[in-house]
Amino acid sequence: MKFAQARKLPVAIRGGGHKVAANAVCDDGIVIDLAHMQSVRVDPVTRCACGEGGVLWREYDGETQAFGLASSGGAISTTGIAGLTLGGGFGF
User: Fold this and answer.
1) Which of 10, 13, 27, 69 to pair with 47, CA 20 to 30 A apart?
2) Would 90 be classed as within a structural domain?
């Protein structure tokens, strides 16, 4: 971020991907790709789940279902949870 700020470059964040409008890329700027951040942690006692920015809905859903949990989110398994969390999609 400091590198981009010092050079007045636009910055885009790419989560799990899927957006047709290509909002996760920018011309003449820097794209921070979170695709390798794919950890999902489920706490069955508190019934809470946390997923990193590159997790896809199918990965998150699979981990939560293993504990009998479901989250509202999306219907397309290849959508990233970051975009769904920030306002896209719908769920069960």
Assistant:
1) 13
2) no
**Interatomic CA distance for residues 21 and 78, integer angstroms:** 16
CA distance 33 to 10: 14
80: CATH: 3.30.465.10
Which of 45, 36, 80, 43 lies closest to 60 in space, CA to CA?
80
Q: pLDDT (tens digit, 9 = 90+) per residue, 58-72?
A: 999 999 999 999 887
Tens of pLDDT, residues 20-54: 666 667 889 998 989 899 999 999 999 999 999 99
Closest alpha carbon to 23 in 90, 92, 91, 88: 88
pLDDT at 5: 95
Q: Is 22 contained in some domain?
A: yes
- Bridge partners of residue 33, in order along the sequence: 14
Name the domain count of the chain.
1
